[in-house]
Amino acid sequence: MDHVFIEGLEIEALIGIYDWERRIRQPLVFDLEMRFDNRVPAATDDIADTLNYKAVSKRLVEYVSQSDFGLVETLAERCAEIVLREFDVDSLRLKLSKPGAVRGARAVGVVIERSRGG
Ligand SMILES: Nc1nc2c(c(=O)[nH]1)N=C([C@H](O)[C@@H](O)CO)CN2
């Protein structure tokens, strides 16, 4: 099966469990792999037949920029729900990285895999 992907989408958000984190915005990086049959848009060459990665990115930027969760787990789950509900995607893999959150690590975060209806 094919995928459409978004790699390294950087969005600033209020995120974290510590008091100091509630007063600043931090960069987050999103990587998504969304299952989608690309044969139709390949045959028609029509953007209307695609899973439009620009539209998905725009929606995530809109949502994440105004979010204020404590855990990256919660934000990742909400983002996956939005993509599955609002776009023609049956399943996806989403990696949410929080760069610089742990000294010595380039990034920390979560990877989740979700499908419609489970
Ligand atoms: N599994 C998680 N562990 C931690 C989280 C988190 O969201 N999920 N968050 C923090 C702090 O906010 C941290 O990022 C501050 O450096 C710690 N552990």
UniProtKB/TrEMBL annotation:
<dbReference type="Pfam" id="PF02152">
    <property type="entry name" value="FolB"/>
</dbReference>
<keyword id="KW-0289">Folate biosynthesis</keyword>
<protein>
    <recommendedName>
        <fullName>7,8-dihydroneopterin aldolase</fullName>
        <ecNumber>4.1.2.25</ecNumber>
    </recommendedName>
</protein>
<dbReference type="GO" id="GO:0016853">
    <property type="term" value="F:isomerase activity"/>
</dbReference>
<comment type="pathway">
    <text>Cofactor biosynthesis; tetrahydrofolate biosynthesis; 2-amino-4-hydroxy-6-hydroxymethyl-7,8-dihydropteridine diphosphate from 7,8-dihydroneopterin triphosphate: step 3/4.</text>
</comment>
<comment type="similarity">
    <text>Belongs to the DHNA family.</text>
</comment>
<dbReference type="GO" id="GO:0004150">
    <property type="term" value="F:dihydroneopterin aldolase activity"/>
</dbReference>
<feature type="domain" description="Dihydroneopterin aldolase/epimerase">
    <location>
        <begin position="4"/>
        <end position="114"/>
    </location>
</feature>
<dbReference type="GO" id="GO:0046656">
    <property type="term" value="P:folic acid biosynthetic process"/>
</dbReference>
<dbReference type="InterPro" id="IPR006157">
    <property type="entry name" value="FolB_dom"/>
</dbReference>
<comment type="function">
    <text>Catalyzes the conversion of 7,8-dihydroneopterin to 6-hydroxymethyl-7,8-dihydropterin.</text>
</comment>
<keyword id="KW-0413">Isomerase</keyword>
<dbReference type="InterPro" id="IPR006156">
    <property type="entry name" value="Dihydroneopterin_aldolase"/>
</dbReference>
<keyword id="KW-0456">Lyase</keyword>
<dbReference type="GO" id="GO:0005737">
    <property type="term" value="C:cytoplasm"/>
</dbReference>
<dbReference type="InterPro" id="IPR043133">
    <property type="entry name" value="GTP-CH-I_C/QueF"/>
</dbReference>
<dbReference type="GO" id="GO:0046654">
    <property type="term" value="P:tetrahydrofolate biosynthetic process"/>
</dbReference>
